[in-house]
Design goal:
Length: 307
């Protein structure tokens, strides 16, 4: 798989992406048998290479997503329980091999949590959520539990979330994951797996271990915000799911029926007016070109195309 982010910025992504040259930063490789990271230059050019390593050289990578936690929900009523809570239709999520992007909203239709749901068995769901929000989500799930026959538990001490970009399947890694599936938000993010913490999978030599910062750069360049810091920032519980691109990443079902916050989400979708969205932008270091980039972006936002 080519990890060049420009390959994947294609329809159905409708937001505007303005490329002004290159984005320069520093990231770190994470050697499996080393206590220290080796610094390298990270460049995302239109072509060519520089520094010790370029993003284009990373054909297959793996990372442990330490910013994510897992909540386990089990019981005979688990499917109905989630169907009434989240933006996603959970009724046909495949066991073991499929994950779905989903949002938890408040009664005003504002995004509380962006999550990825997977299904180890018919009566069990795993909720992959921002580590900073795991306690809050657990409390909210228990609040809505009422008489539903489900058991809710924080599985963060038992399970961890991994990402394998550029790896064709879990079979190629010879691992036995709890769940493993293509990241539902973008093909560029590869496979997402939930693994037992006590077991470390054998990593092939041709799959490079990287820190979560590298993964975050790839994810950001594909216009995918994740976690409370990115999706909410200082405005907690004020962003709409469509403003965070959950409709673009397949995180909202518009024909599943009622769920908490559904009314405003459906109305926003059917009116076709989303006045603000998250989108990636790389700014050139030149002040003149950076100013021109801002002007072009503003012209686009003011135009009819932005809707």
């Amino acid at each position: 798989m080519n990890l060049n982010p420009l390959v994947w910025l294609q329809p159905p992504f409708r937001f505007f992406f303005f490329w002004t040259g290159f984005f320069f930063s520093k990231v770190f490789l994470e050697p499996e048998d080393s206590n220290s990271c080796c610094e390298l230059n990270f460049w995302i050019p239109m072509s060519g290479s520089c520094g010790r390593l370029c993003l284009h050289d990373l054909k297959q990578i793996w990372t442990i997503l330490r910013s994510r936690s897992v909540v386990r929900v089990k019981g005979p009523d688990v499917e109905k329980f989630f169907q009434n809570l989240v933006t996603q239709d959970v009724r046909d999520i495949g066991v073991l091999t499929e994950g779905r992007h989903a949002g938890f909203l408040n009664s005003r239709g504002r995004l509380l949590h962006d999550t990825i749901l997977s299904r180890p068995s018919e009566e069990e769901f795993l909720v992959d959520v921002d580590r900073a929000n795991v306690d809050r989500l657990t409390r909210q799930l228990n609040m809505y539990k009422l008489r539903a026959n489900v058991k809710i538990s924080d599985a963060s001490n038992e399970l961890s979330v991994w990402s394998f970009a550029g790896v064709p399947s879990a079979d190629a890694l010879q691992v036995n994951p709890v769940t493993a599936f293509p990241d539902p938000r973008s093909e560029a993010l590869g496979l997402r797996m939930v693994l037992e913490k006590k077991s470390r999978p054998p990593i092939p030599e041709n799959v490079t271990g990287v820190t979560e910062n590298v993964y975050k750069v790839i994810r950001t360049l594909n216009g995918i915000c994740e976690g409370s810091v990115e999706s909410q920032g200082d405005f907690r519980d004020e962003e709409l799911p469509l403003e965070c691109n959950l409709d673009v990443t397949g995180g909202v079902s518009f024909d599943k029926g009622c769920y908490i916050g559904q009314e405003l989400t459906a109305r926003t979708h059917h009116t076709g007016v989303v006045r603000k969205r998250f989108f990636p932008m790389a700014i050139d270091k030149s002040p003149d070109r950076a100013l021109r980039a801002a002007q072009v972006a503003q012209e686009y936002i003011d135009s009819d195309q932005s809707t």
